[in-house]
Amino acid sequence: MNIFLRGQQGWMLLETIMLGLILIVAVSCLPLYQQAIALRQADGARTTALFLAREEYSRIQWQADHNFSALPAGDIGWLGAPAVLQGNGAAYDVRAVAGSGDDASRLLTVAVYWQSGSQHGLVTFERLLVAHPLKGSDDYAGE
């Protein structure tokens, strides 16, 4: 046997075992990576739902500020542009319900449902809707 090969015996087996262990660890991390991607997509959908609900609140508040008594009690459909309901790889449905109340306030509930592939979700927000008098109107007591 060659004198230079005596110290090299067994290294090929050890290198193969080490490479196998590294591959097993790398493959075992793949489900964690997939879970992180799914959580990121769900978080993006929830964030979009929050902004859609805020937009709906703003549009309904604008209507209430201009004519609170004309604001109907019951279901109010999406008041924004229909194209906004598609984003982040999901389709959204926004529904608002104005509760019956007095002439000064109403409870407003906005629900946002989304469907993205096999994932879906629903978030619901509630806010007390109060008419704010506009500057220049008879009810405005400003400068």
Element layout with pairings:
Blueprint: H1 11-28, H2 30-67, E1 74-76, E2 86-87, E3 90-98, E4 105-116, E5 119-130
Describe this structure in words.
With 143 residues, the protein is of the alpha+beta class. It is 39% helix and 27% strand. It contains two helices and five strands; from the N terminus they run ααβββββ. The protein has helices at residues 11-28, 30-67, and strands spanning 74-76, 86-87, 90-98, 105-116, 119-130. Strands 1, 2, 3, 4 and 5 form a five-stranded antiparallel beta sheet that branches. The termini are far apart. 13% of the residues are buried.
Compose a concise summary of this entry.
The chain has 2 helices and 5 strands; from the N terminus they run H-H-E-E-E-E-E.
Key phrases:
alpha+beta; five-stranded antiparallel sheet; 143 residues
According to DSSP, the number of beta strands is 5
The whole-angstrom Rg is 29 Å
Helical element count?
2
Largest sheet: 5 strands, antiparallel
Q: What separation lies between the terminal Cα atoms?
A: 104 Å
Strand content: 25-35%
Low-confidence stretches: none
Please write the string of helix (H) and strand (E) elements: HHEEEEE
> Considering DSSP H and I runs of 4 or more, what fraction of the residues is helical?
25-40%
Average predicted confidence as pLDDT: 83
Shape: rod-shaped
What is the structural class? alpha+beta
